Amino acid sequence: MKKFLMIMMLVVLLSPSIGYTSDCWEVSNLKGYSSYSKDDYMITKDGDATDPFFLILDNDNPRISSFGKDYHLTKIGDDIYVIITRNDTFVIIESFMIDRKNHRVIYVKNRKSVNQGMLSPLQSGSLFVGDCNPCYTRLVK
């Protein structure tokens, strides 16, 4: 019995999936286009400076994890999630659509300043396409 328990403990400790969320995706290499009100909405090439980040898609608590902070996501369809952030300065609406088969993500971000006292009110929209891979692949390589 002791031998069986020791073997089971080793299997659990050495299993690559233990310690990782079963549905976690690392998002990186976001490239795309943005349009800003301050530039008369001219469409320009852009890349997102916040990558990499993690989409942790637990059924009961989907979230994005970036720079040590977690933000709650709302699932609106199969592999489609949104987050709405509002503070005293901005409203930001972000959406993520995951293509699991091709390991790609489409990320859309819209921003609008809500503080009328700002010197230059900002409205913008961005569309990015990037890589998304299961979180454990980076740690196993």
Task: Sum this structure up briefly.
The chain has 141 residues and is mainly beta. The protein has helices at residues 2-14, 135-140; strands at 24-36, 43-47, 53-56, 63-66, 69-72, 74-77, 80-86, 90-99, 104-113, 123-134.
Overview of the molecule:
The protein has one domain (23-140): Lipocalin (Beta Barrel), CATH 2.40.128. The longest helix has 13 residues, at 2-14. It has two helices and ten strands, in the order αββββββββββα. Strand 8 and strand 9 (104-113) form a beta hairpin. The chain is mainly beta. Strands 1, 2, 3, 4, 5, 6, 7, 8, 9 and 10 form a ten-stranded antiparallel sheet that branches. It has helices at 2-14, 135-140; strands at 24-36, 43-47, 53-56, 63-66, 69-72, 74-77, 80-86, 90-99, 104-113, 123-134.
List the helices and strands and how they pair.
Elements: H1 2-14, E1 24-36, E2 43-47, E3 53-56, E4 63-66, E5 69-72, E6 74-77, E7 80-86, E8 90-99, E9 104-113, E10 123-134, H2 135-140
Antiparallel strand pairs: 1-2, 1-3, 1-10, 3-4, 4-5, 6-7, 7-8, 8-9, 9-10
Main traits of this protein?
disordered C terminus; 13% helix; mainly beta; 141 residues; ten-stranded antiparallel β-sheet; Lipocalin
The number of domains is: 1
What is the class in the CATH system? Mainly Beta
Tell me the number of strands: 10
Give me the CATH architecture, please. Answer: Beta Barrel
- What is the CATH topology? Lipocalin
Helical content class: 10-25%
Determine Rg (CA atoms, Å).
Answer: 19 Å
Mean pLDDT: 80
Q: Please, how many helices?
A: 2
Tell me what portion of residues adopts beta-strand conformation: over 45%
Give a quick account of the main beta sheet: strands, pairing sense, barrel closure. Answer: 10 strands, antiparallel
Shape descriptor reads globular
**What structural class do you assign from the helix and strand content?**
mainly beta
Distance between the termini: 35 Å
Secondary-structure element order, N to C: HEEEEEEEEEEH
Give unreliable regions as ranges. 3-21, 137-141
